[in-house]
Every structure is written in structure tokens, then in C-alpha cells.
């Protein structure tokens, strides 16, 4: 907490007025990041809702924008301190689950609209979260020269190569 106080240019006493310990501070930061990220994802994907591929691109880009905007906060959240909490209460896993469920619902809605099987939507939504998170982590760690928009396009291209066969009207008619 001394480092947090020093970084915030305040005393530990002031920090402890707001947070019981490092775990409490970490959980508060995670909660704030989750709120911001989910809001940005929902907004970006809603704005592109008429075009499934653009919805994908917008969602990927929104996640990467968060990383780019504040890489230190992203690192702090994704590489947590040792928490005095049960392993099943991991805020990063919870965040990934919330995002995966949201994306699964977007996919499911599109599949349902086309009269297609919605069964795989949950798996695909969570798979997309894993792909984008892993690529975002690698980008932050080793490829800072790669522009965010280029990475978002690359990830969207990879995901769209599979999704387009199942979530586009032409795929539905050619599968019959």
C-alpha cells in the first residue's frame, strides 16, 4: 500500500480510508475496469448491430482500445497480486465470463434470427474472448509497433473465417 500511496501522492492513511488492503484495492480496480469495458463493448457492438462482421470488428477493437489507453491498469488487472480469496472468486475470470456471455448472446441472437441452431453460441462467445485476450496480452508484451487497428482486423479476419460460415444468410441457404 506504500507504493500505491506514493504513486497517488498521498499517505497510506488516506488510501486505507478507502481500501482495507491490497486485495480490496485490486477488486475495486477490477470492478471499475469491468464496468468500463463491458460498457464500451456493448456500445461498440450495438452501433454495428446491422452488420455481423462489423459487430465483431467493433467488439475486438473496443477491447484492444482499453489495453492501448491504459496498459499499466490492464497489466495490473490481468496479473493480479496474490489474493486472499477462494480461487473460484477470481475477478478476471468473472469479467471474461461476463464478456463471453454477452458475445454468446449476440451470436445466439443472430443465429436465432436466421432460424439456425444456437447451441454453439456459448462456446464460440467464450472462445472469441480467449482469442482476443491472449492476442491482446501478446501484443502488449511483445508487439507494441503493431497498430491496434491492424491487430483488430487480423483477429476479426481469423474469427470471421469461421463465424461467417454460420452467421450469414448466404451460409444458411448454401448449407441446405
Describe the structure.
By secondary structure, this protein is mainly α. The protein has a single domain (11-168), classed as Orthogonal Bundle (Tetracycline Repressor, domain 2), CATH 1.10.357.10. Helices cover 78% and strands 0% of the residues. It is built from nine helices and no strands. The chain has helices at 2-8, 12-18, 22-47, 52-69, 71-78, 91-113, 121-142, 148-167, 169-175. The longest helix is centred in the N-terminal third of the chain and has 26 residues, at 22-47. Mean pLDDT is 84; it is low at 171-176.
- Under CATH, the topology can be stated as Tetracycline Repressor, domain 2
The count of β-strands is: 0
Strand content: under 5%
Per DSSP, the total helix count is 9
Mean pLDDT, to the nearest integer, reads 84
CATH superfamily: Tetracycline Repressor, domain 2
Rg from alpha-carbon coordinates: 19 Å
Briefly note the structural class of the backbone.
mainly alpha
What does the main sheet amount to? Answer: none
Write the layout of secondary structure elements.
Elements: H1 2-8, H2 12-18, H3 22-47, H4 52-69, H5 71-78, H6 91-113, H7 121-142, H8 148-167, H9 169-175
Domain HTH tetR-type: 1-37
GO molecular function: DNA-binding transcription factor activity; transcription cis-regulatory region binding
Protein name: TetR family transcriptional regulator
Amino acid at each position: 500500500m506504500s507504493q500505491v500511496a506514493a504513486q497517488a501522492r498521498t499517505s497510506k492513511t488516506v488510501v486505507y480510508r478507502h481500501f482495507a488492503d491490497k486485495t480490496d484495492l485490486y477488486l475495486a480496480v477490477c470492478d471499475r475496469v469491468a464496468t468500463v469495458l463491458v460498457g464500451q463493448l456493448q456500445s461498440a457492438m450495438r452501433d454495428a448491430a446491422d452488420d455481423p462482421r462489423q459487430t465483431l470488428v467493433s467488439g475486438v477493437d473496443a477491447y484492444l482500445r482499453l489495453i492501448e489507453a491504459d496498459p499499466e491498469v490492464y497489466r495490473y488487472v490481468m496479473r493480479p497480486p496474490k489474493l486472499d480469496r477462494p480461487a473460484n472468486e477470481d475477478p478476471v475470470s468473472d469479467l471474461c465470463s461476463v464478456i463471453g456471455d454477452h458475445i454468446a448472446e449476440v451470436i445466439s441472437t443472430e443465429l436465432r434470427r436466421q432460424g439456425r441452431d444456437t447451441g454453439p453460441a456459448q462456446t464460440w462467445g467464450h472462445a472469441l474472448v480467449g482469442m482476443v485476450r491472449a492476442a491482446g496480452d501478446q501484443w502488449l508484451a511483445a508487439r507494441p509497433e503493431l497498430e491496434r487497428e491492424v491487430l483488430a482486423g487480423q483477429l476479426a479476419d481469423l474469427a470471421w473465417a469461421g463465424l461467417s460460415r454460420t452467421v450469414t444468410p448466404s451460409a444458411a441457404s448454401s448449407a441446405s
